[in-house]
Task: inverse folding
């Protein structure tokens, strides 16, 4: 039997309703495993309880702690399953994919939309399926949730209420949970040996959605606020209004990285298709391609923790590190 380490980080899967009916962290790792004795038939299970919090409260320093925990135990186990709240699961899973990009072990994130004591609950099936996938397939850092197996850094949460909570909007999913898990081997990425194994993140960034009438003066205040990086969710192919070009030019002068994502579901494909996109690139904007906002945010934090050199930032952002972007 494969040796699988389950790292408990909280989330709905560990919660119980309080007197007012609101969900809050309650069960510890031992309690939770008592609800799922079937796991011992699937693998040799070990448990690490790292934290037990609502994932809304997850912060970047936790990603470093989780990365260290996995690194310290990587030679003891054949794979890892991480229970995590759904609200920030895509962020944490993306962070681990960058931080541990050279670790050749399955690291599977899962959780639930309903507490494990609810009847019915998706908690037990998700946990069982995550352990099965971690035992059978080396697919790197992934999310197993409901019927889907997804590459971690391609995911986004799409529903707060359905049991099929996550999607992979820009690429095919890694696999599907059927009678047995099925993996699309063409979608499994290979590790790159020449990529930095950095486990730290610089969270001093901001994400701004462009809307009609957004003030250039307000954007320029972001430069004065000493952010280390800015992500703009723009129109269409990455188009930016002419009125905001002074901001981009000032950011370029300050060597402040400004990453461009699209508000469309297909991502930034050709920023030079329109003049309003072409001028943004000429003013130093960094195309984010088809990255999700979760992956782009994490990648920028990960890069900034390594360098503030704008040339190096642009080069790394244009590199496919762990399958997070289509080049």
Result:
């Amino acid at each position: 039997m494969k040796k699988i380490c389950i790292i408990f980080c909280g989330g709905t899967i560990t919660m119980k309703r309080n007197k007012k009916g609101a969900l809050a962290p309650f069960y510890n790792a031992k309690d939770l495993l008592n609800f799922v004795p079937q796991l011992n038939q699937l693998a040799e299970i070990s448990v690490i309880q790292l934290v037990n919090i609502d994932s809304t409260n997850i912060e970047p320093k936790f990603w470093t702690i989780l990365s260290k925990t996995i690194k310290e135990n990587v030679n003891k186990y054949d794979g890892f399953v991480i229970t995590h709240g759904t609200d920030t699961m895509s962020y944490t899973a993306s962070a681990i994919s960058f931080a541990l990009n050279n670790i050749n072990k399955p690291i599977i994130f899962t959780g639930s939309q309903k507490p494990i004591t609810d009847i019915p609950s998706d908690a037990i099936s998700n946990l069982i399926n995550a352990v099965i996938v971690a035992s059978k397939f080396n697919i790197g850092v992934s999310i197993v949730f409901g019927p889907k197996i997804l590459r971690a850094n391609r995911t986004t949460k799409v529903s707060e209420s359905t049991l099929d909570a996550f999607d992979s909007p820009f690429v095919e999913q890694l696999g599907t949970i059927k009678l047995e898990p099925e993996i699309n081997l063409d979608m499994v990425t290979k590790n790159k040996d020449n990529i930095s194994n950095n486990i730290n993140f610089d969270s001093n960034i901001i994400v701004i959605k462009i809307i009609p009438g957004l003030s250039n003066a307000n954007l320029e205040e972001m430069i004065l606020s000493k952010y280390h990086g800015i992500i703009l969710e723009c129109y269409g192919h990455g188009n930016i209004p002419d009125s905001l070009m002074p901001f981009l030019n000032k950011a370029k002068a300050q060597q402040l990285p400004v990453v461009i994502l699209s508000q469309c579901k297909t991502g930034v494909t050709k920023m030079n298709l329109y003049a309003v996109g072409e001028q943004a690139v000429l003013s130093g904007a960094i195309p984010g391609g088809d990255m999700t906002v979760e992956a782009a945010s994490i990648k920028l934090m990960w890069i900034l923790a390594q360098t503030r050199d704008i040339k190096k930032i642009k080069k790394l952002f244009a590199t496919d590190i762990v399958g997070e972007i289509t080049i």
Q: What stands out?
A: The chain has two domains: 3-187, 205-317. The mean pLDDT is 92.
